[in-house]
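User: Sequence in, structure out. Go.
Assistant: Echoing your sequence, followed by the structure tokens.
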Amino acid sequence: MTDHILDKQRFFFAGVAGAGMSAIAQYLSGRGKQVSGSDRLFNTDANDHTKAQLEAEGIHCFDQLKAQITEQDEVLVVSTAIEDTNVEVARAKSLHIPIITRAQLLAQICASKKTIAIAGTSGKSTTAAMLFHLLTQNGIDASLITGAGIVSLIKQGKIGNCHVGNSDWLIIEADESDGSLVQYKPAIGVLLSIDKDHKELSELHEIFSIFKSNTQEHFIVNRSHTLAASYSTDTTLDFGKGTPNEGHDFRQEGFNIYFDVNGVAMHLPTIGTHNMENALACIAVARQLGLNEEQCAAALSSYPGIYRRHQLLGTVNGITVIDDYAHNPAKIAASIEACKPVADKLIAWFQPHGFAPTKFIRTELVEEISKALRPQDEMWMSEIYYAGGTTTKDISAADLIEDLKAKGINAFFVADRNELIAAMKPHFTDDCILLLMGARDPSLEQFGDKVMSSLQQQ
């Protein structure tokens, strides 16, 4: 059934508002397919904004209070988050409509294009966005299917995680968290990093090894990351330490980073050494597409950033607010490290998501946060975000805060994030960063705006 899926005309998505699902739905709609979908997020009016954005792209959206798929639909697309008890799945089975996973469909789309797949446990969304910007600025109109909104596309009123381009190239964010990575056979594969996140390292090794063998032309790895470096097939293709795409003389000044590649000066309006590594990955890919360092430098200097990836929300009374999607130990540590040069004091807040995932990374999370913070810095958390479904609620964010306190960290728990700014008020200084971190919860997008409003009213 999956062999000729792109010959079908009518697609229905169960869970269409999800980041990965909405990107593919928009891509198919942009390619002239009839696309509709439902989502339990649309059961209330709180997510009307996302619904309106999808409908503006020609996608018919429904709530999920009852099944909305009809006999006219030819395919039901589901993500790994959709359970067999879902109303759309049950209806599709009764109507004998074929069911395909998001990853299977994306694999089909990849096979129809010259695909650049960005993989690794951290940095995928940023690197995909950066590469998209770099290629677009140099006249290569690549398509994009990713998990995070690009600011330049958001400014056009779009969700920002998809673009239908005119060239043969397609950039995708290839996710290891659900194992779907093994289904893609890209022309160019990029491996940024390997850290324990959703899976144990032994499982990740198996997944990334298959990804490497599935890559058709060039496999590019980060030689500055020990675990990733072991997958290298050709150092001349790679980026990082000891490669032709190595960054030198890194420095950060405020919200800008600077470094050299082969004597060519690079500047990006972003922060952190991890973003230099992301840029180096883009340069390594761009060189395989015939671009040189000067062309890369010109494009990267105007990189617009992506939504909720070290996004600067503003400064109020000396408090600089940054919103970030960081949610695993390595990403949280990198986010904290990138903020430290900007102000004398860092107040970091994190909302963990999912009870099982939080339990799984508890030890590493506490360890990484403890190492990253300075004596004057603080770590705050609110209660774990629960997306619904069946789970055992046998851990609290308060447990992580107690672990941090035991390590001598200034750590604080405020269960309800709406009470956060009032609780933090005595802790603010006239030169501090407030770093907001969290993922998966769609309302985090509005939370940053609420924090800014609260600070302005103080």
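User: And one key feature?
Assistant: The two ends are 59 Å apart (CA to CA).
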